[in-house]
Amino acid sequence: MIQQLLQSIPALAVYLIVAVVIMVESLGIPFPGEITLISAALLSSRDSLDISPVWVAVCASAGAVAGDSIGFGIGHRFGRPLFDWLGRKFPKHFGPKYVAFAESVFTRYGVWAVFFGRFIALLRIFAGPLAGSLKMPYPKFLIANITGGVVWAAGTTCIIFYLGVAAEKWLSRFSWLGLLAAVLVGIAASLWLKRKTGKLVDAQEEPGNPDPAYE
User: What domain count does the chain have?
Assistant: First the structure.
């Protein structure tokens, strides 16, 4: 039944959903971009579905680059007042301690924060708007944005795709159990990283502590 349901999803719709969700997340709006990408990559590993992992990666990359670029423009235009407003509206994502942590990372690492920030949920929604707010030179930002977006999108798609193929090949009738296991491992890793990032954010508020970005 699940397979029949998945087969009814048009491939084009999957590509568009991936691009739009990741673009919205990259604008600075908390959306499940990573979960959407992982789900699409899993679907592409099914032989019975006409979904290409290449197009999943391309659409994810395009959404990431476009969203970050638009977010950069918004941050450059409105600056710090934008984050003050977001902090009041979405304190769990844009509260002062989160902004302070992200600023410390960007101040220390510059364009590298844009590149590696793509792999960290907290920094992923800050990358574009915060880089614009801090007046980072756009050419440097764009290079880091494109390379980070492509590496993240293509790398994640490739890893999840081959995990799905392996599950299909070696677990045969229980392939969905393998896919579920892969998803659970990915979620566990994401939760661990989120918890670690949360500790660094909390350390930002403690007086006398070294810069958590350095840690």
Answer: 1
